[in-house]
Amino acid sequence: MSDRPGPLRGGQRASGPGGPRRPGRRSAGRTSARPVAGANGGGESATARRPRITGRAAVLLLVLAVLAVSYASSLKAYLQQRAHIEDLKNQIEKTSASIDELEREKRRWNDDAFVRAQARERFGYVMPGETSYVVLDENGEPIESRARLHDAEELLAAPPTAWWEDAWASVELAGDPPDDEPPPATDLDKPRS
């Protein structure tokens, strides 16, 4: 027998320049992924097989990443728009309340009694035939009056208390009277002559 490669027979394949591949021999440039029996006892391969990412899996991962980014940006825009809508609703409510207050003030200015009271309070005007008195404190400053006109809606805004609550409050006050207060002055200083 010669060392030359002969014609291929049966199921033999040419394995490169050295001739047909012979069982039991390995080529120098190739590694086999076949399991080696007996090394680990269970027939497992000596080199663990690493999972490879196929082209389809890479394309699928790329598509999923693009979808996740697009949905995340859409969700962010949606949440920003919802927050903006809530801010606008709050601003509308405040503006509506301000408009209602201004309309109530306008209605009050249509009332002659309110206009007269404002003229008396702000400018010190009096009606013809009236005499104006200004009460001064000990420093000579005018004492501001505490009386003011209220809108009817403001007066009705507070719910009225029941009569039995007022009665019970007076019973509690009678059982626990407040501390003694000095009696009011009965004699006025006589004017000095």
Q: Topology of this protein?
A:
Elements: H1 55-109, H2 112-123, H3 152-157, H4 163-175
Descriptive report:
This protein is 45% helix and 0% strand. The model has no long low-confidence stretch (mean pLDDT 76). It is built from 4 helices and no strands. The protein starts with 54 loop residues before the first helix and ends in an 18-residue tail after the last helix. The relative contact order is 0.03. The chain has a domain at 53-133. The protein has 193 residues and is mainly α. It has helices at residues 55-109, 112-123, 152-157, 163-175. The longest helix is centred in the middle third of the chain and has 55 residues, at 55-109. It is elongated and about 115 Å long.
Features:
193 residues; mainly alpha; elongated
What would a concise description of this structure say?
With about 190 residues, the chain is mainly α. Helix content is about 45%, strand content about 0%.
So how many helices? 4
Described by strand count, sense and barrel closure, the largest sheet is: none
Kindly report how far apart the N and C termini lie.
162 Å
Overall geometric form: elongated
* Structural class by sheet pairing and helices: mainly alpha
Low-confidence stretches: none
Strand content: under 5%
Radius of gyration: 51 Å
Helix content: 40-55%
Output mean pLDDT: 76
H/E order of the elements?
Answer: HHHH
Number of E-type strands:
0
